[in-house]
Amino acid sequence: MKKIALFLIILFINNNTLGSEVYFDLSEKEIQIETDFNGKEIIIFGIFEPKEDTIISIKGPNMDTKILKKEKLFGFWFNTKKIIYKELPSIFFLASSAPIHDILNKEAIIKEKLYFDDLLTSIITQRNFIEQKNLNEWKNNLISIKTKEDLYKEYEFKNIENKLFQTRVFFPSQSVPGKYQVTIYQIKDKIILSKKNKVILIRKSGIGDKIYKFAHEQSAAYGLLSILFAVLSGLIAATVFRRI
């Protein structure tokens, strides 16, 4: 909160010299994931130009996302169909001073990937079936899943006396380590006047960080140790129950 107070002091001193550029900052630029991590809230704040509109987007890191569909065959349920959306943002948050489709044209929304539906229109997919008719259903199901998990979400853009804005975003416990791109767009007459970027870094710390690095840098060894651990756990459990 000290950072926000300092920002307001600077804004007050320089109020007549700022112009219409986008000025914004973050309450924190790094989130550490520890064993008891339950999520983290970060405040995005800055200058609000009342004659212009503002959009905030938070994305990343990109990941391949797989969606499966079960079908009943011979009395049993099997995963028969799948779609893999390539390089899809693991988290996608939005906030805007007005509904995005009202302040920006369709072409710009698709180019900047600024809405959930339009984001998937430009994502390369891989699937194991041919028919096209139900692709919108797959897309809607994916968006529904991401939304329920609070990984895709629209947040409130709070206008403070037509001078400042503030948006509070919450990174859930399942947020993956990596760099999250925060982008601010300044818009007038459906034209992007300027945009600026900042980065939020999410990283594991403590023993969780060591396990995460080992799993990714030594995947074969990690897999072997996981199997050995499972076998030993089974043997120990069997021995305990035998004695009981």
Outline the structure in words:
32% of the residues lie in helices and 39% in strands. By secondary structure, the protein is of the alpha+beta class. A six-stranded mixed β-sheet has the order 2-13-12-4-7-9. The chain has a four-stranded antiparallel β-sheet with strand order 1-3-11-10, with helices on one face. Strands 5-6-8 form a three-stranded antiparallel β-sheet, with no helix packed on it. The longest helix has 25 residues, at 219-243.
Blueprint (SSEs and pairs):
Layout lengths: L1 H12 L10 E3 L3 E4 L6 E8 L5 E7 L2 E12 L2 E14 L2 E5 L3 H4 L2 H7 L3 H6 L3 E3 L7 H14 L3 E3 L3 E3 L3 E8 L6 E11 L2 E14 L2 H11 L1 H25 L1
Parallel strand pairs: 2-13, 7-9
Antiparallel strand pairs: 1-3, 3-11, 4-7, 4-12, 5-6, 6-8, 10-11, 12-13
Helix pairs in contact: 6-7
Shape: flat
Number of helices: 7
Summarize the amount of helix as a percent range: 25-40%
Averaged pLDDT, please? 80
| Largest beta-sheet characterization | 6 strands, mixed
For the biggest β-sheet, the strand order reads 2-13-12-4-7-9
CATH class of the largest domain: Mainly Beta
| Rg over CA atoms | 23 Å
Structural class: alpha+beta
The CATH topology annotation of the largest domain reads as Immunoglobulin-like
Distance between the termini: 56 Å
The assigned CATH architecture of the largest domain is: Sandwich
